[in-house]
């Protein structure tokens, strides 16, 4: 699989796995292919809406980027040969 397909799958996996957690602003951050295992390691970033913002102003956050929401990063590892999800792990970023 090429990088575009791996990225598409990674975003879909994150959206599906975290669908009940009110995540928004899902986006690509990094892409790396492991030379030895041939697996894709794709960092996806997103934000979680605070529970106080879910009901009233959710639409505004879904439509546009909100810099006040903290960004969360996950490394999605995808098998190159079949496109299957291997893992989703935390990617810690120092600020």
Given the structure, what is the number of helices?
A: 3
Strand content: 35-45%
> Ranges with pLDDT <50 over ≥5 residues?
none
Shape annotation: globular
Oligomer: single chain
H and E string: HEEHHEE
**Tell me about the biggest sheet?**
4 strands, antiparallel
Arithmetic mean pLDDT? 85
Helix content: 25-40%
Number of strands: 4
Coarse structural class? alpha+beta
Keywords, separated by commas or semicolons:
globular; 95 residues; 4-stranded antiparallel sheet; alpha+beta
Write the layout of secondary structure elements.
Blueprint: H1 3-17, E1 23-33, E2 40-48, H2 51-54, H3 58-63, E3 71-78, E4 85-90
Antiparallel strand pairs: 1-2, 2-3, 3-4
Structure write-up:
- The longest helix has 15 residues, at 3-17.
- The protein is 26% helix and 36% strand.
- It starts with a helix and ends in a 5-residue tail after the last strand.
- The chain is globular, with a radius of gyration of 14 Å.
- The protein has a 4-stranded antiparallel β-sheet with strand order 1-2-3-4.
- The model has no long low-confidence stretch (mean pLDDT 85).
- It has helices at 3-17, 51-54, 58-63; strands spanning 23-33, 40-48, 71-78, 85-90.
- By secondary structure, it is an alpha+beta fold.
């Amino acid at each position: 699989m090429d990088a575009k397909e791996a990225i598409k799958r990674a975003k879909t996996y994150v959206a599906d796995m975290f669908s009940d957690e009110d995540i928004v602003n899902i986006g690509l951050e990094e892409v790396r292919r492991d030379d030895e295992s041939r697996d894709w390691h794709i960092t996806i970033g997103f934000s979680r809406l605070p529970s106080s913002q879910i009901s009233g102003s959710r639409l505004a956050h879904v439509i546009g980027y909100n810099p006040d929401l903290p960004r969360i990063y996950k490394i999605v590892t995808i098998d190159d040969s079949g496109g299957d999800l291997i893992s989703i792990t935390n990617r810690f970023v120092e600020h």
